[in-house]
Design a protein that fits this description.
vitamin c, 11 strands, L-ascorbic acid binding, seven-stranded mixed β-sheet, alpha+beta, four-stranded antiparallel β-sheet, 37% helix, 8 helices
Length: 301
């Protein structure tokens, strides 16, 4: 199954319409896709991954393997309520806590800050493209996500360590993401991420050439009135190699009120006879403008 790949370099040329159509289809039919030629500095992305892996080896690996979870696997227990991962979470917007997290090197903090500055611009660009495809004002998602200080941005840094018994535990159990737009910088070699589509689990391959993997969160599905899907996914534990996952969440602020965009709602509270009267005049025309007129009628205008 071929996962959609959106080439951002084609958005400024003759292939813009086809690229926008592919993005719309990916959001609507898949809920996830890859982005290439996204403009984020490749050397910076490589540096972030290298520094995170160094941090894992120096500060997280020993503590993980000495925890209760690996001991449970040694006893051949099937583990259903715990994930085979070691993580830390960083807040970036509206304010950052990265320099408050114990054990992170200054080089890692600086690299992550620089990466996030570029990634937020990409997330905002992507949100505007989604709005364009949905027929909304280009700033609609950003404004809907904004509290008094703008959208909320945070990153979950996760390592899924080598697992001696991947048949007994998941790397991360099945779930959808609660927030908005998720941009994942992932491992180039070790697989494990899977998304559920059309009744089957689809393997997401490791990201070559620093392509970013993107998926919709629950709030995008809500805001789009179900047009864009938030899809269940999981991470499988792997016997060979550690899998790196750096997932950044472009989310609504905590106080943001999220609801379907009114423009995307069907007409409601409209007498059927009033709709029939409208229909008789527009039967052979596009139904979209008819629905818009019906909304106006329903609102008493």
């Amino acid at each position: 199954m071929e996962i959609p790949v959106i080439d951002f370099s084609k958005l400024d040329g003759e292939e813009r319409s086809a690229t926008m159509a592919l993005l719309h289809q990916a959001c609507e039919k898949w809920g996830f896709f890859m982005i290439e030629n996204h403009g984020i500095d490749a050397n910076l992305m490589d540096n972030v991954k290298q520094l995170v892996n160094q941090h894992y080896e120096a500060n997280m690996k020993k503590r993980f393997y000495e925890s209760e979870l690996p001991m449970s696997l040694e006893k051949k227990r099937n583990i259903t309520n715990t994930d085979w991962e070691t993580t830390f979470f960083v807040w970036h917007r509206p304010s950052s806590n990265i320099y408050e997290i114990q054990g992170l090197s200054k080089d890692l903090c600086k690299a992550v800050d620089d990466y996030i500055d570029q990634l937020i611009k990409l997330a905002e660009n992507l949100s505007e493209l989604m709005c364009e495809n949905l027929g909304l004002e280009k700033s609609y998602i950003k404004e809907a996500f904004s509290g008094s200080k703008g959208p909320c941005v945070g990153t979950k840094v996760a390592i899924y360590p080598q697992c001696p018994r991947p048949d007994l535990v998941k790397g991360l159990r099945e779930h959808t993401d609660a927030g908005g737009i998720i941009l994942l910088l992932q491992d180039e070699q070790v697989p494990g991420l899977e998304f559920f589509k059309d009744g089957h689990w689809v393997n997401i391959p490791p990201s070559k050439n620093n392509m970013l993997f993107v998926n919709n969160g629950d709030q995008i599905e809500i805001l789009s009135n179900g047009m864009y899907k938030s899809i269940q996914h999981r991470v499988m534990a792997e016997k060979d190699g550690n899998r790196l996952s750096i997932a950044t969440f472009y989310n609504p602020a905590g106080e943001a009120i999220i609801s379907p965009a009114p423009k995307l709602l069907y007409p409601s509270h409209l007498r059927f006879q009033d709709y029939l009267n409208l229909y008789s005049k527009t039967k052979f025309a596009e139904k979209g403008p008819r629905f818009e007129s019906a909304k106006t009628l329903a609102n008493g205008h």
